[in-house]
């Protein structure tokens, strides 16, 4: 479980997140909406542990451990993984090598790449000259290889063509084990137990909602979380009325 | 020869144009002579290990020929393939008249005191030649090995790729484990003839207090390709090298790659200069340098003398743990219509890249090492995979040492 309590975060001198309370239970996937610059990426980076996002007060707990001041790699080890909106490119580091690193000897790089139709990119330097859509696939591939327990997706489908959106959407749904359902001999509770994966997905387009059955939606507005509700309902409201309504909830 | 002797004598105290001056008399230990051997298996294990660090495979698997020199004597020189000649240069100068057509024909004996010394007190070296039309399948390896503490090794090498031939040479320079200091002077003259392809990969694995003064010149004829790779990862006291290449023939191509690591106390002054003289000639000089506290000067110079020639220079430097890095790229165009560019960057590893890899599970140290390895991992088109893997291995070994 991920538990964030009354978190306040500063970036430089600026307070970019305030009063953040968030709870993602095993098996749950949350969707994060919010206008440009509202602090969505900052929230994910803070959960991942980027030190420039300074936690001024509040607490982040993951799997029962206080991770508020843990290093990035310790969090990765504990099972947090992130797909970046704008990852850096690294000259000379082949995509294959990075996927191998993510696999940590536990996965088959070639097979995973095959699944995403990404094999031909394995020999290229990571993110160097990748198109917008290619970056999304490369990020997803890294997360697949890592297979963390908490998946943080920063706009996984922005700039992706329609055909690949379904590939990416279905893959995410699969990674989060959202395709498992209760059956005659397994109760809902048992299914959830087999499906401990958690997700937090940022989206502007809402396309991802067509593929991933999300449990909850939230809107981040000006550094404050508002509007805890059904993701599709939130998305409809944003589409119809813009973020204007959220201002009222955020106050 | 008389003329060369005179010129050399006159230049024997002439300081080099760049690089710290070396007191040659300080290296007066007479290098010992060694017996030739018929089988590399008879080499002591210690030598084999040290040679391997410089890319020399004494098993000779996937090698077309081998030349090994210890101190002042060539001890082993064999070609295992038709169309390939591997001959010690002293023997060649004595017995083969044609070699004189190449000896000091590109490099000048009176350039400085190092060239002069290499002529006046020649301790052998090799002549490696691929005959016309011969595509030599595996690389030829040459090892220049210094065993006597505090001595000098003055070598002269001539590499010839005759018309339509293809030749890959790997030269490993190394010192015995017990050696701490010495002086190595190496003259190399490269002749790449019409439509020939020559790749030359040099890996240095010297002792900490070695001083090295290579002097190399290459000439590439019409349609020829000269690919030169230089790897120096180990601490070394001082090296100064500024090889020159003349692209004389139409469409001739030269590509230079160097990978350098400067450790505390090391002084590396490494460059590359290419004259683009023929029509449609192309040149590329790429250097990647890392300093952990050493001084590195990375030079590059392209001189375009024909319209339509193209050249690119790239010096990238990383300062990891202090040190000094000076990138000096130069471009000269003497006519209209030359197309030359350069790119130089000196900096540190981007923190963002380290964090990115940490979020994939690496520790900060592992992430740094991975990025450094990537920085040194340059794609070298046209280099046989076997040689690329030798370069990768040299990089890998050095990483273990300095990380
Ligand atoms: N390095 C930085 N320097 C200055 N300001 C920054 C920096 N990084 C983020 N910010 C600012 O912090 C605010 C929140 O940024 P963040 O990236 O979290 O927004 P976001 O909600 O993800 O936006 P988008 O939907 O456009 O991706 C923005 O106003 C942004 O300009
Ligand atoms: Mg963002």
C-alpha termini separation of chain A: 28 Å
Largest sheet of chain A, in brief, is: 6 strands, mixed
**CATH topology annotation of chain A:** Rossmann fold
Could you report the average pLDDT of chain B, rounded to the nearest whole number? 94
Which spans of chain B of ≥5 residues are poorly predicted at pLDDT below 50? none
- Please report which band the strand proportion of chain A falls in: under 5%, 5-15%, 15-25%, 25-35%, 35-45% or over 45%: 25-35%
* Strands of chain A, total number: 10
Beta-strand content of chain B: 35-45%
Shape of chain B: globular
In CATH, what is the class of chain A?
Answer: Alpha Beta
Q: Strand order across the biggest sheet of chain A? A: 6-7-8-3-9-10
Short description:
The complex is a heterodimer of chains A (251) and B (403). Chain A has 251 residues and is an alpha/beta fold.
Write up this protein.
The complex is a heterodimer of chains A (251) and B (403). With 251 residues, chain A is an alpha/beta fold. Chain A contains 9 helices and 10 strands. Chain A has one domain (2-88, 150-250): 3-Layer(aba) Sandwich (Rossmann fold), CATH 3.40.50.300. Chain A has helices at 40-48, 72-78, 95-103, 109-115, 132-146, 162-175, 188-193, 231-241, 244-250, and strands spanning 2-11, 14-24, 29-33, 53-62, 65-66, 80-83, 150-154, 198-202, 216-221, 224-229. In chain A, strand 4 (53-62) and strand 5 (65-66) form a beta hairpin. In chain A, helix 3 runs parallel beside helix 5 and helix 5 (132-146) runs parallel beside helix 6 (162-175). The mean pLDDT of chain A is 91. Chain B has one domain (2-349). Chain B has a 10-stranded mixed sheet with strand order 2-1-5-7-9-11-14-17-19-21, covered by helices on one side. In chain B, strands 10-12-15-18-16-13 form a 6-stranded parallel beta barrel. The N and C termini of chain B lie far apart (50 Å). The chains are: A alpha/beta (251), B alpha/beta (403). The interface between A and B is medium-sized, with 27 and 22 residues. The complex binds adenosine-5'-triphosphate and magnesium ion. The site of adenosine-5'-triphosphate has 11 residues of chain A, from helix 1.
């Amino acid at each position: 479980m991920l538990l964030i309590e009354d978190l306040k975060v500063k970036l430089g001198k600026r307070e970019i997140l305030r009063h953040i309370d968030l709870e993602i239970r095993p098996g749950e996937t949350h969707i994060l909406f919010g206008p440009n610059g509202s602090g969505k990426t900052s929230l994910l980076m803070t959960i991942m542990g980027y030190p420039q996002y300074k936690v001024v007060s509040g607490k982040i707990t993951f799997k029962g451990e206080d991770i508020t001041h843990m290093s990035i790699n310790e969090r990765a080890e504990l099972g947090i993984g992130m797909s970046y909106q704008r990852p850096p490119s690294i000259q000379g580091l082949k995509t294959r090598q990075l996927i191998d690193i993510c696999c940590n000897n536990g996965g088959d790089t070639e097979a995973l790449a095959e699944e995403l139709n990404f094999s031909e990119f394995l020999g290229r330097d990571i993110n160097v000259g990748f198109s917008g859509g290619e970056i999304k696939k490369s990020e997803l591939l890294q997360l697949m290889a890592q297979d963390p327990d908490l998946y943080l997706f920063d706009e996984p489908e922005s700039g992706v063509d329609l055909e690949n959106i379904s590939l990416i959407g279905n893959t995410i749904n699969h990674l989060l084990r959202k395709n498992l359902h209760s059956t005659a001999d397994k109760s809902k509770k048992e299914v959830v137990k087999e499906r401990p994966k958690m997700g937090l997905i940022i989206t502007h387009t809402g396309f991802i909602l067509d593929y991933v059955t999300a449990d909850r939606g939230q809107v981040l507005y000006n550094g404050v979380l508002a509007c805890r509700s059904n993701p599709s309902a939130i998305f409809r409201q944003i589409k119809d009325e813009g973020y204007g309504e959220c201002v009222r909830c955020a106050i | 020869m008389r003329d060369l002797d005179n010129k050399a004598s006159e230049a024997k105290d002439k300081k080099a144009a760049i690089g710290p001056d070396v007191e040659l008399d300080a290296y007066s230990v007479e290098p010992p002579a060694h017996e030739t051997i018929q089988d590399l298996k008879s080499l002591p294990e210690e030598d084999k290990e040290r040679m391997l660090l410089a890319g020399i495979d004494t098993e000779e698997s996937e090698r077309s020929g081998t030349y090994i020199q210890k101190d002042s004597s060539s001890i082993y020189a064999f070609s295992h393939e038709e169309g390939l000649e591997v001959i010690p240069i002293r023997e060649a100068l004595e017995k083969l008249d044609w070699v004189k057509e190449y000896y000091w024909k590109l490099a000048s004996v009176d350039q400085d005191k190092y060239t002069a010394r290499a002529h006046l007190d020649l301790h052998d070296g090799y002549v490696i030649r691929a005959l016309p039309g011969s595509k030599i399948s595996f690389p030829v390896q040459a090892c220049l090995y210094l065993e006597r503490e505090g001595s000098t090794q003055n070598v002269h090498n001539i590499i010839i790729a005759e018309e339509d031939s293809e030749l890959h040479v790997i030269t490993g320079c190394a010192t015995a484990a017990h050696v701490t200091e010495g002086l190595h002077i190496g003259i190399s003259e490269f002749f790449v003839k019409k439509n020939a392809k020559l790749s030359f990969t040099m890996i240095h694995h010297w002792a900490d207090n070695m001083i090295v003064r290579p002097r190399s010149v290459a000439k590439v004829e019409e349609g020829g390709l000269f690919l030169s790779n230089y790897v120096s990862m180990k601490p070394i006291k001082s090296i100064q090298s500024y090889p020159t290449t003349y692209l004389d023939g139409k469409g001739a191509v030269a590509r230079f790659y160097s990978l350098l690591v400067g450790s505390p106390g090391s002084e590396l002054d490494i460059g590359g200069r290419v004259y683009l003289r023929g029509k449609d000639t192309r040149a590329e000089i790429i250097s990647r340098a890392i300093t952990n506290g050493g001084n590195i000067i990375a030079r590059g110079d392209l001189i375009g003398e024909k319209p339509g020639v193209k050249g690119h220079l790239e010096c990238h430097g990383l300062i990891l743990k202090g040190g000094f890095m000076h990138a000096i790229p130069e471009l000269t165009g003497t006519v209209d219509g030359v197309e030359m560019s350069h790119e130089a960057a000196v900096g540190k590893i981007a923190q963002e890249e380290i964090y990115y890899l940490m979020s994939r599970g690496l520790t900060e140290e592992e992430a740094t090492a991975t990025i450094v390895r990537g920085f040194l991992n340059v794609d070298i088109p046209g280099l046989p995979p076997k040689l690329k893997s030798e370069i990768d291995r040299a990089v890998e070994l050095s990483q273990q040492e300095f990380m």
